[in-house]
Amino acid sequence: MTLADDKTNFRIIEAAMFLVWAAIIGPASGIAVSALGKNTTRILDSLLDGYDKSLRPGFGGPPMTVDINIYVTSMGPVSERDMVYSMDCYFRQSWIDTRLSFDGPLDKVTLNNLMLEKIWKPDTYFWNGRDSYLHTITTPNKFIRISKDGRIYYSMRLTLKASCPMHLETFPMDTQSCPLKLGSYGYSTSDVIYQWQWGEEKSINREPGLHLSQFELVNTPAATTVDQMKRGNFTFLVANFILKRHMGYFLINVYVPCIMLVIISWVGFWINREATADRIALGITTVLTMAFLSIDNRTDLPKVSYSTALDWFIGMCFTFVLASIMEFAGVHFFTKFGSGEVNHTSDDESKEAEDSDDGEVFYPSNSSEPATALDFETGKQNGDTKISIELNTEGSKLVSKPRRENCCSRFMYCLKGSGKYKNMASKVGINSASRIDQLARIFFPLVFAVINIIYWNSYLSGDEQGTMNHI
Predict the structure, then answer these.
(1) Burial class (CB in 10 A: 0-12, 13-18, 19+), 388
(2) pLDDT at residue 140, rounded to an integer
(3) Signed CA dihedral, 332, 338, 342, 346: sign only
(4) pLDDT at 334
(5) Secondary-structure percent of the chain, ordered helix, strand, coil, rounded to 5
(6) Exposed, middle or buried by CB within 10 Å (0-12, 13-18, 19+), for 187?
(7) Angle subtended by helix axes 309-334 and 256-265, to nearest 10
(8) Cα dihedral: 122, 128, 130, 132 (round 10)
(9) Strand-strand pairing, 222-229 and 124-126
(10) Cα dist. 1→6, 12, 41, 389, 417 in Å?
(11) CA-closest candidate to residue 275, choices 328, 344, 330, 347
(12) What is residue 451's three-state secondary structure?
């Protein structure tokens, strides 16, 4: 025989041995599994014989204990307007019912949720809950397991929506503590006592990487309380979810725009006081924009009777914008040029003046009106400024006209900061700067910076202290 024939014979022998083993062991294992299932069914049926689900375990004796733990899978949204929050979690309860203890080959038996309809369960409810519900897709998300000693482990997947009393004095730099309070609806402490299964520090767990759009879940401290009611004393478990607000959204959409509007309102300090319409238009635009931001900010907040930190900041910016308009009103009132208008000649006079010879006329230093012909003849020149003049064809009056400078020259003067050009323009009454404007250029930014330092320091330090107190 060849080597190939030996390998073929060996494989045939292996296959035959496997078939013999399957024929002997297979039915035996199937019989064992079937017997185990029948034995478990018989045990469960015997447990429910004479079982009264309307009576709590140990009825008439000492109070029973219900252990609670919560596993949070997701959280949000959190609504300041309605003062509610929602979350998805696995809510787990555990208690001992000696009537369901059994002897058998298995230590624990996992059952269908239909078994829940046949046994006693705690009447747990959420004291501050609102629109909570049990997930039922694709089947009711419930789980029950019974141990040999009669301990029952009951888990369900819930979406909880609960009220959260918020204190918004420091909004949007606030830290909120949203409670979840649960207990028995009908059993007092003489019948049922609730407790955290692994202690107050470890019984509330959350999904790794849990993320909220506007908040950060800082901590989840827990507590146990006993409330006295007319029906007796009731045990309640309180889970507190400490939420610290992210400021990024409000910095981008409120704080930075408000600061930019205030800075824009200061542009008017560098606009000459003769441009009355321009400065008033700038002031009114910034005021209306600030009013819009203030109204839009309150749409998502409850109508509370106190001011939030954001309200104070918007009010401060609104005050600075209004102060910029009032500053120009003072400039316009105290200006030495009356209406602020510069004298212009008519078109005919200007055209005639272009054909005549240039001369000189003097503006007295204490007057905004051009010197008269008499002043010109008598040589009234003390402290006066020379500018170009032209006589009309009739020679009856003087027409004042500054020396013409082209646009490029004026632009170069501006870039160089020519003091001579500025002095000449201010004396003639063109682009003159008021002393009030000059002071406002320094005073307004300085005061705004100081107030901002005080504002941010007080609220941010207070927020850190509040977070530590919650933790």
Answers:
(1) middle
(2) 92
(3) positive
(4) 78
(5) 40, 25, 35
(6) buried
(7) 10
(8) -40
(9) unpaired
(10) 7, 16, 59, 135, 114
(11) 328
(12) helix
Token pair in block for residue 407: 């646009």
Report the run of H or E that residue 17 belongs to, with start and end: helix 3-47
Distance CA 234, CA 335 (A): 77
CB 405 within 8 A of CB 392: no
For residue 364, say if its preceding peptide bond is cis, omega within 30 degrees of 0.
no
> How far apart are the C-alpha atoms of 346 and 438, rounded to whole Å?
34
Look-up: residue for tokens 């819930």? 158
Supply the pTM of this predicted model.
0.71
Q: What is the mean pLDDT of each run of 10 residues along the chain (471 residues)?
A: 48 48 44 57 78 92 96 94 95 95 84 87 95 91 92 96 94 95 95 96 94 93 94 95 94 94 94 85 91 82 87 94 92 63 46 44 43 40 43 45 60 62 56 82 96 94 62 51
Helix residue spans in 183-275 (DSSP H): 248-250, 256-265
Cβ neighbours for 178, distance < 8 A, ≥ 6 positions apart: 78, 85, 162, 164, 240, 241, 243
Closest CA to 323 of 439, 458, 452: 439
- Under 8 Å between Cβ of 67 and 195: yes
Give the integer Cα–Cα distance in Å for 382 and 446.
40
Q: Within its chain, how far is the Cα of 407 from the centroid? A: 50
Q: How far apart are CA 200 and CA 223, in angstroms?
A: 6
